[in-house]
Every structure is written in C-alpha cells, then in structure tokens.
Amino acid sequence: MSEPRFTPLADAEPRDAWADEARDFTPWLFENIDFLADALGVELEATDMEVAVEGFSADIVARDVKTDERVLIENQLEASDHRHLGQILTYLAGVDAKTVVWVARSFQGAHRSAIRWLNEHTGEEFAFFAVRLRVVRIGDSPFAPVFEVVEQPNHWERTLSRRTNAAESELTRLRQRFWSRYLDLNPEVFPPTRHSNVWVPMLSSGEVILSMYVGSKTSGMFLRGRWGSDGEQLQPLMHQHAEILDDALGPNRSTGGGHYYGIAKEVAVRDQSRWDELIEWMEAGRRRYAEVFRQIEAHSADTIPDDPGLAASADA
Q1: Residue 177, Cβ neighbours under 10 Å: how many?
Q2: Distance CA 31, CA 18 (A)
Q3: Cβ neighbourhood burial of 86 (10 Å; 0-12, 13-18, 19+)
C-alpha cells in the first residue's frame, strides 16, 4: 500500500484571484455571500451593490435573513486604512444598517481598536466586525477564499442566539396571524394552526399531503407523503399519474427530498400588505391540487371528501 502524499496549504495574493477590487472582488462577494456569512454565523442575502451614500458608494448591502435587518459590507483587497474606516461610519447612517462588516487583507492595530471601541460603546443592537481575507490553494489547485473574523462584539454567540430567537418568535406570530387571516377569508379550509405550514390531505388514505407554507423569503406549496413516511415512496404514484398531474399542475420541478409539484411565490410573510393577494393565490392553488386528486381518486374504490381541505391537519 502506497504512502499518502500531502501538499501544504499555501497563501496566495488576493489580487491573484481578483485583479480589481470594484470590478472583480465586490461582484464576486455579492454573488458568493455565503462564504462570508458562514464565518459570521449568520444567514445573509445580498440585496444591493455600490449603494450611493453622501458622494461615496457602499460596496454591498445585505439582509440578515433571520432578523430582516440590513447589513453593511465594506471590502478591500489591501490592508485596512483610515479612508475606509471613515466611509464605514458615513455609510452606517446612510443605509440604515446596525451590522457592519469590514473585510480587508489585514488590519492595522488602530483599526482593530476602533472596531473594538465601537462594539463596546454602542448599543447591543449594533454589531461591528473586522474580517481578514485570505486566499489559499494546495499546489496548483483552484483558489479558495478564507474569511477570518478578527474582531466582533463581545458575547457575539449569545447575542446572535438572542436575536435569532426574537426573530423566530416574530415570524411565529406573523405566521399565526397569516393563517388566521387565511381562515377569515376561507373558513373551514383547515383547522386553526400555530405552525409555519399547513398540511391538507389530498387522498382519503392520507397518503399524499399538500404542504402549504409561508416563509421569510417565499411562500408556496408542494406535495409530500404523510407524516413520518419516506417521501420517495410516492414516486410510483407520481409516475403513474404523471400525465394528469402535468396537465393540471405543470411539469414537476421539485428538486427531490420527497417533494413533488411544488409552486412558490416571492411574497414573504413579513410583507403584510400583500397577505390577501398571497392568500388568494394560495387558495386557488389548493383548489387546483384538490381537483386533480379528485380525478385521480375517482378511478379507485375509495372516496374522499368533497373538499379535502375539510379534513386538513396542521403540521405538528
């Protein structure tokens, strides 16, 4: 048996990967924000790039998916400097952000001290980060980005947990209110629920469930198996009735995981001004799914309720 061979991990110059900060690095980071989000321990969605503020341009504005708050990201391919520190303070008010992330190749001691001072002398709702950018590779392998957090708020993990719990509590309350509004407009479609999604049986056997959900980004519905079942077990049934399902619902574009024939609409539960629009869309979809399964079950000996929604059950 041959001995394994190892090659050391080597640092490369950031400009070997991105020649220009504005033209190359900022657009790349915008499209690959997850690398930075993982280092921070938050889920980010990049929303804007080169945002004009007081004669300058903030590199990236993102959204914290859990809290829905704005996050300002200022990035450099070189060492930190006074100019970028000043711009960050200018952008802070201009983009109404409470979380600021400064990315640079390295940080001078004075700039790390400034970030530390801001974290110690501002309210808990504010968070300032200094993140060192590294580019590494093994031999001639492709470049790999590494983001190292060198300054962050004290007790950040505790603060993050508290923020997340508060945001999740808010989402829970919004979802409860949304489903209550749904039932106000469509009485007895399903029992009242305290959960983020509602399950509506599509077959009297309960073998196929329509899962309706409202989320922080999108809302929609998809078909799945009964609670505790392996959703892949539905494949034969979906294949058997593919023609009628495709005709009524369109091609199955769901990407595995035991989900089938999913549809979604880019309306978040926080957008309360569009709740009635979303409810109308969801109810039309629910009725369409119900009708196609009435047709499917009409060929069997079983019978189902006139409206499967009357037998609905909520996700536990």
Answers
A1: 13
A2: 14
A3: exposed
Q: State pLDDT tens for residues 128-149.
A: 999 999 999 988 889 999 999 9
| Token pair recorded at residue 287 | 């009725």
Residue 154 to residue 167: CA distance in whole angstroms: 20
Does residue 269 sit in helix, strand or coil?
coil
Q: What share of the chain is helix, strand, coil (3-state, %, to 5)?
A: 40, 25, 35
* CATH for the stretch 9-165: 3.40.1350.10
Greater confidence, 311 or 196? 196
Token code pair at residue 263: 């549809």
Q: Where are the alpha helices (DSSP H) in 75-224?
A: 82-94, 109-121, 156-185
Q: Domain-by-domain residue ranges, the chain?
A: 9-165, 170-301
pLDDT band at 7 (very low <50, low <70, confident <90, very high): confident
Tell me, what amino acid is at 70?
R
Instruction: Tell me the three state secondary structure of residue 277.
Output: helix
Q: Which amino acid is present at 292? A: V
Extract the tokens encoding 120: 């110690």
pLDDT range class, residue 107, cuts 50, 70, 90: very high
Contact in structure between 269 and 175 (CB atoms under 8 Å): yes
